[in-house]
Specification:
Layout (H helix, E strand, L loop, with lengths): L1 E5 L8 E5 L10 E10 L1 H8 L12 E2 L3 E9 L11 E6 L6 E9 L6 H4 L3 H14 L6 E5 L4 H12 L3 E6 L4 H6 L3 E4 L4 H8 L4 E4 L6 H8 L5 E3 L11 E2 L6 H13 L7 E6 L3 H10 L5 E5 L1
Parallel strand pairs: 8-9, 8-11, 9-10, 11-12, 12-13, 14-15
Antiparallel strand pairs: 1-2, 1-4, 3-5, 3-7, 3-15, 5-6, 6-7
């Protein structure tokens, strides 16, 4: 089978499309014929060797955590799923023609494989950071870097829970944020004053790692009310870095429920082929994403 792999840590140029042996579903796992794989920042952070504690990596290694596809092997002990079912979920080495998933759910009706591949890690992260930052219904959450996949999910989950969201993004994404129910403003000079004009901030999330931790602490008045998934230096300022995943099955179940109720939609900004994986990583690292990027298989 074809699979994207890397034999050394480094930039996008270390990615190779290779011929590899097919993986197989062990106990408690399923294998899918991959139709699409989600492109996440964790993919290129692992490729660079940034976060090896959370994601131990033995070289050569495959790439990717999220995928959607058609079940073609069911491991021992797995119930409620059959060969031929359409699923989305999380596993390993998902930039490939076949991948083994450790967590999955049936795809909601009307969702395409391309769309479904973008939800698993994004929803797990969104639900985790909302929980960990401690924001409650009736309060206001500031999201820095709100237009990407996790930000798009946070905005919609928060709206469903009665939490007001102020989102920062580039000029081109202001209407997009407003369409997701956020109070939107641009980053750049004067952004703190613009946020204050929109209202009091009870908690804040840094999703982009753009060096705004001090400002978020200033806006909330307390480093314990700020959480980041992107700035590894944040703990030096007393701000928590969230990098340990929660329950992916729970996240998939909530995603399916919200999608079915018409409360969640994350658009796919751009799709790539397996041979274009390096370009997908380059674009992901550049930021300014509106929604999700996926690799089509």
């Amino acid at each position: 089978m074809k699979k994207v792999s890397f034999a050394e840590f480094g930039g996008p140029d270390v990615l190779r499309l290779i011929d590899s042996e097919e993986p197989h579903a062990g106990p408690g796992r399923i294998r899918i014929a991959v139709r699409a794989a989600g492109v996440n920042p964790v993919d290129w952070r692992v490729r660079e060797g940034q976060i090896l504690k959370a994601h131990p990596t033995e070289l050569p290694a495959g790439v990717g955590l999220d995928a959607s596809g058609v079940v073609d092997e069911v491991g021992e002990g797995v119930e409620g799923i059959e060969v031929g079912d359409h699923v989305f979920g999380e596993g390993s080495s998902t930039y490939a023609e076949f991948a083994v998933l450790s967590a999955w759910a049936r795809m909601p009706e009307g969702l395409t494989f391309e769309e479904a591949a973008g939800y698993p890690s994004v929803m797990e992260t969104a639900l985790r950071v909302i929980r960990e930052v401690g924001v409650r219904p009736g309060q206001t959450l500031l999201v820095s870097g709100a237009s990407g996949g996790v930000g798009s999910a946070v905005l919609q989950v928060a709206r469903d829970r009665g939490i007001t969201v102020i989102g920062t993004a580039g000029v081109a994404n202001q209407d997009y944020l407003r369409g997701l129910g956020a109070l939107a403003t641009t980053y750049g000079e004067g952004w703190i004053e613009r946020v204050r004009e929109l209202g009091r901030v009870d908690a804040a999330l840094d999703l982009a790692g753009s060096g705004v931790i001090r400002e978020l602490v200033d806006l909330t008045g307390d480093p314990h009310k700020v959480l980041t998934i992107a700035d590894l230096a944040a703990p030096e300022l007393g701000v928590r870095f969230s990098g340990v995943a929660g329950s992916v099955p729970d996240a998939l179940a909530e995603a399916a429920d919200l999608i079915a109720r018409g409360k969640l939609h994350i658009p796919v900004e751009k799709s790539y082929t397996l041979a274009e994986a390096a370009a997908a990583h380059t674009d992901s690292q550049a930021g300014h994403t509106r929604g999700r990027r996926v690799v089509l298989v």
